[in-house]
Write a structure and sequence with these properties.
- The complex is a heterodimer of chains A (about 300) and B (about 250).
- Chain A is mainly α.
- Chain A has a single domain, classed as ABC transporter involved in vitamin B12 uptake, BtuC, CATH 1.10.3470.
- Chain A is built from 13 helices and two strands.
- A two-stranded antiparallel sheet of chain A has the order 1-2.
- Chain A is globular, with a radius of gyration of 19 Å.
- A six-stranded mixed sheet of chain B has the order 6-7-8-3-9-10, sandwiched between helices. In chain B, strands 2-1-4-5 form a four-stranded antiparallel sheet, covered by helices on one side.
- The longest helix of chain B is centred in the middle third of the chain and has 14 residues.
- The chains are: A mainly alpha (about 300), B alpha/beta (about 250).
- The site of magnesium ion has 4 residues of chain B, from α1.
């Protein structure tokens, strides 16, 4: 059996990502470890959005909510001196999943513009909640006292160690996501996206499957939020700003919806371009905007569709 | 006499001021092929939608296979053995023909909270699906994307999806609409082999198909069933001729 181009691209990508810390060390450019770690954190957020947006057809315009909840879970624990990472990250996942459950129950029975507006409204609510939490810095946010501690197992203060933790989690989520969308569970939400009346007519009741996907995606993005808090070592309501939701959605579309790998590529390219262009000119968004428009217009299946035609 | 497989009493449904279904009573006996004919806009599709559970009636009751299903939605009715095809072809266009049918098998194989095993590698889904696909004459087209099938093949695929749920009652909304002569003949042949195995409610404008397949015919006009009887009785019914057959429409 021929190895698919998709598999080659994936393997090459994983190797390249794994090589970032040693290469950055050789070049004496530690900044790149930071940049690529940030890309991978957003890649996790983007691929969790791909599950519900790409495979489930649910245009959630509030994915940043879970990023914020996950980050605040870590930050608030740290604020009170609780720095156990297992606890912090578990709560980050659970709280985001719980929020997704509430938002999902209310939004999933709607569709189209209503769905977008409801998910957006909830995220705005959380954003303003973040601003109103004066104890935790209000709209200025607050620094994270210490990075999450893992009982000496791994030290996140070591940039490379932290980097490989994020890489391992990204690869884990890629694997879990791939299995999930191809398993019976994934087939239900994909069939409902394709033609919901037909899915119902053959006997599927898609609601609880879509809700479950929504909750899983929320939990995964909550973990990305916990990672982000550790990455920035700073906590701010901006994590939940609607433009952040838009950015994550753009990563998915830019990289290629319904591919899981595409959103990872989208996160790398978007944040990479942001970094390169912002160094060249302060008007970098004027260059980035048209580029994104061109990709969306001419690469219907996103960047990943260009490199793996067998998908 | 045995209880009808599906029994509808006093079914009514309005869209605004329009009575699309007007106090309809209908019995479909176990094993029969029951055609519903009537002019465009008579309310046939609306009736099928209510039988399938897609549309909620404003009033009336529906019993199916000995139980009251009035409050059950489409997935629940599907699980009891009701299957339908749509007037406007309704398939999963971005899935292969085999996937389409395997999904129908999956929907009737317990819950789908399975997260690890690839569904396309599950023999207990693929093999029954392939058998059903072969049964409707699409065995050689299993791997073709459903969107790329010819119109007639897509209609056959819809029948295959319905059959894969092992229905007791098939609701078919104009299965030969938009087909050429040859495709129509193939579909009618397929349906005549099915009619011995499963009860069928057949909405159809093609009178040759209706008179070939139907054991009984109900005539619907303005949301009401104005006559029910054998094909001969309906053909001879003066009111029916005036309301429908006499118009000479075969659209
Ligand atoms: N969702 C809806 N909203 C408003 N009116 C509707 C709706 N669905 C159907 N109607 C109207 O109800 C009437 C019955 O429509 P229906 O589609 O059931 O007729 P039909 O007998 O299937 O016609 P055809 O032979 O053309 O398929 C029509 O006048 C139609 O315009
Ligand atoms: Mg109709």
């Amino acid at each position: 059996m021929a190895i698919s181009r998709r598999a080659i691209v994936l393997a090459a990508g994983a190797v390249l990502l794994a090589l970032v810390p040693p290469v950055a060390g050789l070049l004496n450019q530690p900044f790149y470890v930071d940049l690529f770690r940030r890309m991978m954190i957003f890649a996790i957020a983007a691929l969790s959005l791909d599950l519900i947006l790409g495979y489930g057809g649910m245009v959630s315009f509030g994915h940043a909510a879970y990023l914020g909840i996950g980050a605040y879970a870590v930050g608030i624990f740290a604020f009170y001196g609780v720095d156990n990472g297992f606890l912090q990250w578990s709560v980050a996942i659970a709280a985001s999943a719980a929020a997704a459950l509430v938002i999902g129950v209310i939004s999933i029975r709607t569709s189209g513009v209503y769905f977008i507006m409801i998910t957006l409204a909830f995220t705005q609510m959380l954003y303003y909640l973040g601003i109103s939490l004066e104890t935790y810095g209000g709209d200025n946010g607050m620094p994270l006292k210490t990075r999450s501690q893992f009982a000496g197992l791994v030290d996140l203060r070591n940039p490379s160690a932290f980097y490989y933790v994020v890489l391992a989690l990204l690869l884990l989520f890629l694997l879990l996501g791939r299995r999930l969308v191809d398993a019976r569970f994934g087939m239900v939400i994909r069939s409902a996206r394709s033609n919901e009346p037909r899915a119902r007519a053959i006997g599927f009741a898609p609601f609880r499957y879509k809700l479950a996907a929504f909750v899983l995606a929320g939990g995964a993005c909550g973990l990305a939020g916990a990672l982000l808090a550790n990455q920035t070592e700073y906590l701010t309501p901006d994590f939940m700003h609607w433009t952040r939701s838009g950015e994550i959605m753009f990563m998915v579309i830019l990289g290629g919806m319904r591919t899981l790998f595409g959103p990872v590529l989208g996160a790398v390219v978007l944040l990479g371009l942001e970094d390169v262009l912002s160094a060249l000119t302060e008007h970098w968004q004027i260059i980035l905007g048209p580029f994104l428009v061109v990709v969306v217009l001419f690469a219907k299946r996103g960047l990943f569709g260009l490199v793996s035609r067998d998908g | 006499m045995a209880e009808p497989l599906i029994a509808v009493r006093g079914l009514s449904k309005s869209f605004g001021g329009l009575r699309a279904t007007d106090r309809v009573d209908l019995d479909v006996e176990d094993g029969e092929t029951h055609a519903i004919i009537g002019p465009n806009g008579a309310g046939k599709t609306t009736l099928i939608g209510q039988l399938a559970g897609d549309l909620r009636p404003d009033a009336g009751t529906t019993r199916f296979a000995g139980r009251d299903v009035t409050s059950l939605d489409a997935p629940a009715r599907s699980r009891l053995g009701l299957a339908r095809s749509f007037q406007i072809t309704s398939i999963f266009p971005d899935f292969s023909a085999l996937d389409n049918v395997a999904l129908a098998v999956q929907a009737h194989s317990g819950h789908s909270f399975h997260f690890w095993r690839p569904a396309r590698a599950e023999r207990e889904l693929r093999e029954p699906a392939l058998a059903v696909l072969g049964g409707v004459g699409l065995g050689a087209r299993a791997d073709v994307l459903a969107a790329n099938l010819a119109h007639g093949e897509q209609r056959q695929l819809e029948i295959a999806m319905a059959l894969a749920t092992r229905p007791r009652l098939l609701l078919l909304d104009e299965p030969v609409a938009g087909m050429g002569l040859e495709e129509t003949q193939r579909m009618v042949r397929l349906l005549s082999t099915l009619k011995r195995r499963v009860t069928i409610v057949l909405v159809e404008h093609d009178m040759d198909a209706v008179f070939t397949l139907a054991d009984r015919i109900s005539v619907m006009v303005y949301g009401r069933i104005i006559a029910t009887g054998s094909p001969e009785e309906v053909r001879g019914n003066a009111e029916v001729r005036r309301a429908y057959l006499g118009e000479g429409t075969e659209s």
